[in-house]
Amino acid sequence: MINYKQLHSAVKVNSIQGRYVINDMIFPFLDQLNTNFQVEVIGNSVLGKPIKSVTFGNGPIKIFMWSQMHGNESTTTKAVLDFLNFINQGSDLAQTILNGCTIKIIPILNPDGATAYTRVNANEIDLNRDAQDRSQPESVILRATFDQFQPDYCFNLHDQRTIFNVGTTPKPATVSFLAPAHDPERSISKTRGISMQLIVAMNKVLQTYIPGQVGRYDDGFNANCVGDTFQMQNKPTILFESGHFPNDYEREQTRELIFIAMLSGIAVITQQNLEEYPQKDYFLIPENGKLFYDILIKNADFVNKSLQKDQTIGVLYKETLISEKIHFVPSLEKIKKNDTFFGHITLNCLNNKDLKKIKDMSELWDLLCSN
């Protein structure tokens, strides 16, 4: 049995951490990879930033991954670098993967969005809604690479917001998966079924590390989404969503878990034992809910008398780029009394119980008092 956590600690690229990840940070790491890796510029962004791919392995099974299609979704990029470092360091498992697979990765597809820390590209286009029109250079590069490489599997790597919980439980959706639909009826084709089996395999491993914290992303069909489009091309495609782990807003714990999911999934692909993972178990993974706030403040009327009695306030952070660092700026929302929500942190103003904690969050305290 592989100890994935111990393995990750040995290969984590510690020079790159936090939420802000751009070309200039990752290129020095890519440049020092050994000769097993082919690193090349495959095109340029709207603003002329290079987009690089990394290709390695000489096996017959081809796996294609891309990360930071949305520029502010960097957790999977960090996990990709850790995976590259795992292969670079060499081990029996790494050599087995190199012998069994050929893997091509685009670590940052949207470098302009990464630099500005925005979801969209420099033309304010969501690349994950541009799969059919391919109106943007980044979309053209992604599809051209897909067409040239002709992968057997695709890993579509993303982050999701802190609002997501697993089913109706108070567990955060730390990792979510989706086998994208290939038609409006969301029928299960052979390749979509393979995607489901691979997700079952990765979920089985993750449950040993984060029991109850794996969710299933909504599978509504949209032909403009890249995952749906590649599934329509009869290529098993898996959407990875990096979510919130308690007290991990820098997403370093989630980074480790995405690494574990990727490596365990690739191991199953390499070993070609998907038949051990029943497709039906995919539907046992609960769908994501949207029941979390970053902070719940109960009995907020004890601080602000303009609020209703027993009023609960929900706080959501807006991720804001200031001087190349991400700041978490709070915004407030009043919650109706009969609504059920969870907080990653829950504070109670009744009898001044958590008042000092709130005051210590000066920006939040000022906002609460002024509303």
UniProtKB/TrEMBL annotation:
Domain Peptidase M14: 15-269
A single GO molecular function term of this UniProt record: zinc ion binding
InterPro entries linked: Peptidase_M14
PROSITE patterns, alphabetized: PEPTIDASE_M14
Entry keywords, A to Z: Carboxypeptidase, Hydrolase, Protease
Active site, UniProt feature: 241
Similarity comment: Belongs to the peptidase M14 family.
Keyword Hydrolase: yes
Record protein name field: Zinc carboxypeptidase
Highest rank taxon of the organism: Bacteria
GO biological process: proteolysis
